[in-house]
Design goal:
- By secondary structure, the chain is of the alpha+beta class.
- The protein folds into three domains: about 160 residues, Glutamine synthetase, N-terminal domain (Ubiquitin-like (UB roll), Roll), CATH 3.10.20.70; about 400 residues, Creatine Kinase, Chain A, domain 2; about 130 residues, Four Helix Bundle (Hemerythrin (Met), subunit A) (Up-down Bundle).
- Helices cover about 50% and strands about 10% of the residues.
- The protein has 22 helices and 17 strands.
- The chain starts with 6 loop residues before the first helix and ends with a helix.
- The structure holds adenosine-5'-diphosphate and magnesium ion (MG).
- The site of adenosine-5'-diphosphate has 15 residues, from strand 7, strand 9 and strand 12.
- Adenosine-5'-diphosphate binds next to strand 7, strand 9 and strand 12.
Length: about 700
Amino acid sequence: MSEVTNVEEIFGKNVFSLGKMKERLPKDVYKEVRKVMDQGGELSMAAANVVAKAMKDWAVENGATHFTHWFQPLTGITAEKHDAFVTHPDETGKMLTEFSGKELIKGEPDASSFPSGGLRATFEARGYTAWDITSPAFLKESACGVILCIPTAFCSYKGEALDKKTPLLRSMEALSEQAVRIVRLFGNTTATKVTASVGPEQEYFLVDKDLYMKRTDLMFAGRTLFGAPAPKGQEMEDHYFGVIKERVGAYMKDLNEELWKLGVTAKTQHNEVAPAQHELAPIYESANIAVDHNQLVMETMKRVAAHHNMRCLLHEKPYAGVNGSGKHDNWSITTDNGVNLLEPGDTPNENVQFLLVLACILKAVDKHADLLRQSASDVGNDHRLGANEAPPAIISVFLGEQLEDVVKQLVETGIAATAKEGGKLLTGVSTLPDLTKDATDRNRTSPFAFTGNKFEFRMVGSADSIASPNTTLNAIVAEAFCEAANELEKADDFDMAVHDLIKKYLTEHQRIIFNGNGYAEEWVAEAERRGLPNIKSMIEAAGTLTTDKAVALFEKFGIFTKTELESREEVLYETYAKTINIEALTMIDMASKQIIPAVMKYTKSLADTVVAVTAAGADATVQKETLKVVSAKLTEMKTALDKLQKAEDAAAAITEGKAQAFAYKDTVKEAMDELRAPADELEMLVDKAAWPFPTYGELMFEV
Ligand code: ADP
Ligand code: MG
């Protein structure tokens, strides 16, 4: 047995938490920090200096040698540039470590190489990082040693957001402001702030490192570009929630410990549907911290895998034919006096505030379904959304039986007299307790499902930052709250007005509610009849960022300017084109240098066998037949390879971003599929010993 872990002892060990600040800061400075954290504003330079010194002392006591402003550029991952706490030695050669308030608050990485979508040219490359006081600093332990990481936002010289955090923070403030207006209408005079809380469930695959290193596609693209199905996949449903293998268990134990030290509440772990696929879910927290923590989760997953001679695959579709990976984004909104606005209570039909909030969310999701879909798109997720895997690319909301019934009553009669109850679940065994049932069953096929006291946005991809989905959710709901508050604040008869408004919203937006099977073919047709958008790919969704509707929304709440939106759209086209370009080049490489040579050798040995067997006077029909089939497939493969090369050359030559992205989608991706088909068939025909890289069976079952 490995060592015992004391969770309480290690939890938050590497976080400069409020508790540590309270312990180490003078009372008045601590108070100032809390005030800025809770109410916004700026820390005085005097206070910043004190905080910086305390932070550095704590970090150095714990072995830190460097600090970094840790930020989240538009690459979707995090960035860091380490600075040692080293200063000029005095004349005796003695050096004292230092860290000032200025260094804490502001950084200026020469960050011209991050995607900016034209917001910055290299000659005007100044970018600034600004300390995000709402997310705690932490120590990252790695082979680099111990690094003090300070979560920061990243902006251009002109103040344009160059990262994922700035708009998220802006959206949280917008949502808070508008949601406070809503609760005020219902007599809540004490709430000053409403926070969006998020709990992301992270799915991932593990693969043996030695096998991984033999697969150029996994190394360069993070997913397999070739590979015939293994004889066994996920059909037995024996992996989901199955017993965790020892090697994976040891990994999960280390992973949890590393995360707990970082203050990440890693809570749930289990095997997922596909072989070698797993999930980790933390406890929900403020959206901003949840976004930072999810980045740490992804990073730590990769780092710890290396210690176990494995690699962690976060790609949305590492293997064709088995389940892909997503990241369910659980979202709710709570006042600072503890009211979850999404808590229906036992009688939601009587909970007018809840019904208004629900009606606003339905309106927001219906009006901005396109933006919500966009927010969950990345290159890898195109293999899930609307492809041969769920959830579908069509946004709809699942409310469950109880709420759907309440909505129906409201729409039809204007009054919801009753709420269906959950009742008792009879186990039928005298020694087992009967359980009280939830009023609503689950629906696993809905992209946006109400689950008790939160919404679960299931479209998000496993490799993606959750910043965009939550920014969009916050923004669209802030808008709906704002419009409702504008109406209701001026109403003479509030009860009447709110009743009418709920009915109006529900009636106008009920088309977004869908409780059926989201994976069914009929839903696609039904959704079309309802006029719901069905946006099939990431780059088709990218344009939704700059429609008049989107610009009006984001500018109204100061979340994005039009220029920022245009730059983000541009970055999406660029990212898409670059990613598919890498995939195509990797396929060309593997096909020409590995598969085709291996198959040629195999055909040569078959030909030799045919000659030898025939010369020996025996029947060589099987060998001849095999040779014929293999040679035919080889020809097919070579033709497809040439076609891919041509498509790739043509796409690479296009200079305009959007046109190039579409060329990659419409011609290069097509050609990639055409190359893969004969290659995978060949894998089934060729001697296993002759196949140049590990197969699906090995990759998924040898963990
Ligand atoms: P599931 O059964 O959906 O797989 P999990 O336990 O894996 O559930 O994940 C549920 C996630 O939802 C967790 O991260 C949990 O903390 C989060 N969650 C629970 N309640 C809320 C809430 N009110 N707001 C936001 N997230 C929540
Ligand atoms: Mg889960």
